[in-house]
Predict the 3D structure of the following.
Amino acid sequence: TVGCVVVDKEGRCAAATSTGGLMNKMTGRIGDSPLIGAGTYACDLCGVSCTGEGEAIIRGTLAREVGAVMEYKGLGLQEAVDYVVKERLDEGKAGLIAVSNNGEVACGFNTNGMFRGIASEDGFMEVAIWE
Amino acid sequence: MGGWAIAVHGGAGVDPNLPTERQEEAKHLLTHCLNLGISALRSNLSAIDVVELVVRELETDPLFNSGRGSALTEKGTVEMEASIMDGPKRRCGAVSGITTVKNPISLARLVMEKSPHSYLAFAGAEEFARNQGVELVDNDYFITEDNVGMLKLAKEANSILFDYRIPIVGLETCSAGAAATESPLQMNGLPISVYTPE
């Protein structure tokens, strides 16, 4: 699975996710990536793209959950990402990337690693795989 | 307003034995895609345009599990899915069961922009693609030798392999495959292998 989230200069957030799914999957199996609110979500507060064990991400409505805890609990972006990965995945393994309309960018995962890259206008840039 | 920011991912759950050169290859592609997005943002493209542009690039490179280089179904074919969402007004588009569209994320974008719906799947999505004139290719375009080898491994291990690569070098050692049999991954609290017989 691949994904990208962006907040632009106007503070507008967007998210996109694309995947081939699971190796050896049944034909017709649908995972989290095309499900708005599970694998992908964006609103005026944030943009989120998820990857990992689709069934767990769907159960946890993971991407929307990040926006929800920011909206209802007033959490910041990284706090929201950490909370969702810790509290909403049960035993599922997954990771996600997210941006906020304030220009924040975050990622979180409970797997042994995640292929990811992050950058922001203030010059921060990081490309990493492991913890 | 805090300025622009961008993040990309290529999947979570990484084979612990992934060779260094494959790690470098992955980092190289992620850096390339980040830079593509950064220059688009500096050119004042909107967020929704940038996420589509970057995911198209990731779909076209066979390294990660999307577009070319997608994981294979139990039949050895490719069925892709994608979704996109624009924060202001929460507009969204999604597709599933895509077998001939070169860049599924752009089809998802067209569902959002050019259809009255949010989600189209399988034959309906493929017909919409033809009507919209997006670039179509044979299903073979998406299939790589790496993945044919991985599917073989998965069938031998009678399991569904989790969203990550298995190094060709590792094939002899069957590291992940062995891992799959030694300590099978859990899904919904069950060993992942129970799903295959269904």
Observations:
- Chain A touches chain B through 85 residues (CB under 8 Å).
- Chain A has a mean pLDDT of 96.
- Residues 34 and 40 of chain A are 7 Å apart (CA to CA).
